[in-house]
Amino acid sequence: MSEAMKKPTTGDYVEVKFRIPATKVVEVKEVLASYGALAEEPDSVPWEEIYPDFNGSVALRGARKREGLTQKELARLLGVSQTHISEMEHGKRPIGKDMARRLAKVLKADYRVFL
Question: Stretch 97-109: mean pLDDT, rounded?
């Protein structure tokens, strides 16, 4: 458990820490500010509003890097070519359901993020 989660909350506030790409800072601040004015729904912000360009290719690249694998290493584990991985990461090759399941097993993720 992260250190921030071990500390008890005080009053009606909870401290939340997360990492976002540097290119999204302004957009995230704008979205969070817009939700601050809504007293009925302060608990969450739909991820689609912050990452409208998120897709299976982005998920694949992120999960691969999180696991510390190169495209070549991932390709070997899946029994495909490095070119195949590159094309999926760049959106030039679709990620089918079967491949998504194989990726999920190797990359320790839910297969649906790759679809």
Answer: 95
